[in-house]
Amino acid sequence: MLPLVGGMLLNVVLGTSYAWSTFVPPLEKQFGWTRTETSITFTIIVLNIGFWFLVAGRLQDRMNPRPLALVGGILFALGFFLGSMTNSLPWLYLAFGMMIGAGNGIGYCITIPVVTKWFPDRRGAAVGAVIAAYGLGSGVWGPLAGMLIESMGWQAVFRLYGAMFLMLATVGAWFLTNPPAGWSPAGWNPASQAKVVARTSRDVPTGEMLQHPTFYCLWLAYLLGSAAGLMLISQLVPFGTKAGIPKVATIGLLAGAVGNMSGRFLSAWFSDTFGRVNTLRLMMLVSAIAMPLLYAFQGSVVAFSIGVIVVYYCYGTLLSVFAATSADFYGTKYMGLNYGLLFLAWGVSALLGPIIGGYVYDAFGSYQYAFFAASGLSILAILCLFGAKTPQHEVVPAGPQP
How far apart, in whole angstroms, are the C-alpha atoms of residue 10 and residue 166? Predict the structure, then answer.
């Protein structure tokens, strides 16, 4: 149980990345930057998360996860300290964007493989819990930052968060250890669960995984679905402000946190019963419908809040269910690198979602076309998932051990 607690504690810190839009208005007000310029910061964060997730995934397959998790927490906290000294865009991009992204990618990467190894019998629920904690981070620290900025200023908030996050991340990292070799829960029968959830009977090396057509279908679906969600997440507070939503930094981020956290946990839990790919297809369909509706009903606080919850729920589903899918399809022995490569799709999605949102706003003064584009990306993701075959149905070529 302690590894689960440690993973949740570390992730609730790292999830502050999703509260980035809280810091956009004060930065733009002080320095006169455009929405596209500030949006690049979030893109840098996401790209670095994807890159360092892959690097740390390779390392954690071969060593104790605790020191890596600690490094991730330290870098993340340091990003806030350095970010408080921002006086130019290059400094913001390098000191804040790259440090936050590196610490996030390293720390986040450790939590998922650790809990999949400790809870093979409840893999979806366990992964969902630690990833839900990541979603909770924006709901806790985002609204708090919005209130504190009014009285303290954004620089002081950055320094305060850096100190708090360093302490919390250190405690969480200490609890992250792998189970003993050959460990399994008492009374667990893998054969009975395999009737519901498609699962490989062995650990698939990375080189062999890359020969599976299914991996590329999953990768593209992850890329497209994530881009749709990140478009809204990166622009939530500015979009809500433009729509006339009062106290949008509080309302929007709380609604987003509820949806994000619920999607990460509930959908992962449901996928233990209804199947991973089926759950992903359904949630992407809901996202494709909800995106245009959110824009259409943006003037109402209630409709705005419900729409944000639904969109964030669908987005949160991707982060937890794709992680569980990777473990089911390719095993846990090489999961650090295997899921790192799949998770890289999420990092690349930062080149689409946030930049689309910022560019469309700067070009048209409205987010309308961005929401329709996000809906189209979700539909394309569904089509990609129809090309994904479960482990029982895909012919697996022999490949060398990495």
Answer: 10
Placement of tokens 């679906």 in the chain: 221
Q: 78-87 pLDDT, tens per residue? A: 999 999 999 9
User: What region, left, alpha or beta, does residue 187 occupy, with left being phi > 0 and alpha being psi -120 to 50 degrees?
Assistant: left
> What gap in Å lies between CA 24 and CA 19, rounded to an integer?
10
Q: CB neighbours of 396 closer than 8 A, spacing ≥ 6? A: 204, 208, 211, 212
Say if CB 291 and CB 230 are below 8 A apart: no
What domains, with CATH codes, occur in the chain?
2-177+206-385 (1.20.1250.20)
Give residue 367's Cα distance to chain centre. Answer: 23
Size (the chain), residues: 402
pTM of the full predicted structure?
A: 0.73
DSSP calls for 320-383: HHHHHHHHHHH-STTHHHHHHHHHHHHHHGGGTHHHHHHHHHHHHSSSHHHHHHHHHHHHHHHH
Task: Indicate the Cα dihedral angle 224, 227, 229, 232, nearest 10°.
Answer: -150
State the chain's mean pLDDT as an integer.
84
Distance CA 230, CA 223 (A): 10
- Which SS3 state, helix, strand or coil, does residue 397 take? coil
Query: In angstroms, how far is the first alpha carbon of the chain from the final one?
Result: 31
Provide DSSP, 157-216: HHHHHHHHHHHHHHHHHHT--PPPTT---TT--HHHHHTTS---SSPPPHHHHTT-HHHH
Nearest CA among 358, 243, 357, 361 for reference residue 297: 243
State the Cα–Cα distance between residues 328 and 223, nearest whole angstrom.
20
Residue 55 · residue 75 · CB < 8 Å: no
pLDDT of 62 over the 80 cut: no
Q: Which two tokens stand for residue 230?
A: 């990140």
